[in-house]
Description:
The protein is α/β, with parallel strands linked by helices. The protein contains ten helices and eight strands. It has one domain: Aldolase class I (TIM Barrel, Alpha-Beta Barrel). 36% of the residues lie in helices and 19% in strands. The chain has an eight-stranded parallel β-sheet with strand order 1-8-7-6-5-4-3-2. The mean pLDDT is 97. Residues 9, 11-12, 34, 36, 68, 144, 146-151, 176-179, 196-200 line the site of D-xylitol-5-phosphate. Pathway: Carbohydrate degradation; pentose phosphate pathway; D-xylulose 5-phosphate from D-ribulose 5-phosphate (non-oxidative stage): step 1/1.
Amino acid sequence: DLQVKIGPSILNADLGDLGNECVRMMDSGADYLHLDVMDGHFVPNLTFGHPVVKCLRGKVPKAFFDLHMMVSNPHAWVGPMQDAGADQYTFHYEAASDDVLGLARRIKETGMKVGVGVKPATDVDVILPLLNSDLIDTVLIMTVEPGFGGQRFMEDMMPKVSAIRSRFPLINIEVDGGVGPNNVDVCAEAGANMIVSGTAIIKSDDPSQTIRHMRAVAQD
Ligand code: DX5
Ligand code: ZN
């Protein structure tokens, strides 16, 4: 069976001390790190790119890096992100719809895991053919409008999760946005096994306790 994994998003961390924030999350028992890359074009916000990812790789050599690429040209950063030490490259369907299969193949060739994300307004049906291709390791169902941390969880995205889970029992389904101890049960019940959580973990008084608690609730 699929194991539940908790991946802190460092978007709302102390970005001036990102290396230590990554170390702190790994020391707190994170299963992986979810790194939010924004280009100010696909989303109305800016974060960081591959040079920063490369430096972070030096700080936490063993952490699994899930790159959430909120960028308009996902083709452009596959090579640089691989060089920087990314483990999974999650692009947005909306940014790649002209050549989704080509992009997925390209990422696969690098040896990175392939993730495809959909924004709240994107219908789940459009990605089903892609999932049939066997190229996709992870489907990311956004539970907020991408761009900012600390937004409210959209529970009405859960039918997307269940629709995919009923058809693909073994694929990783990741949820991202507003997820915390109070709604992780809903996500897991719908079929999500990769749980991204930013604010709820980063701003927690005891991140290890929060991660442990969320994992326990989700695995239940
Ligand atoms: C939103 C990002 C998410 C988000 C997670 O664009 O993709 O990763 O920041 O943070 P919280 O859990 O605070 O919503
Ligand atoms: Zn994200």
